[in-house]
Design goal:
The chain is mainly α. 81% of the residues lie in helices and 0% in strands. The protein has 3 helices and no strands.
């Protein structure tokens, strides 16, 4: 679940920005989902009587976040970067219509 959330964050960020701002993506694309996962596990442990927080759930969530961040950085970013470069190259070669 957190892998999907992090992947969506990466896709939307890469669609809107021509370059990766490391600090923004570290906070918004990795740290925020990881902290949310930790908070939910703590709330399950201490805030409910019928649920329990589990360290293995937290570890699985963090694995999803890190995996999605790696996919975003090393697979999606080159794809979006090449797509953007092709679009700008095609725009510069167009002849003006009269």
């Amino acid at each position: 679940m957190y892998g999907g959330l992090c992947l969506i964050i990466w896709i939307e960020y890469l669609r809107k920005h021509p370059a990766i701002h490391t600090k923004r993506m570290l906070v918004g694309g990795i740290l925020a989902p990881a902290l949310m996962s930790g908070c939910i596990e703590l709330l399950q442990e201490y805030g409910t009587s019928n649920r329990s927080g589990d360290w293995t759930d937290l570890l699985a969530n963090l694995t999803g976040v890190v995996s999605a961040a790696l996919v975003g950085r090393y697979l999606l970013w080159p794809y979006f970067h090449q797509k953007r470069e092709r679009r700008y190259a095609d725009d510069s070669h167009e002849q003006p219509t009269q």
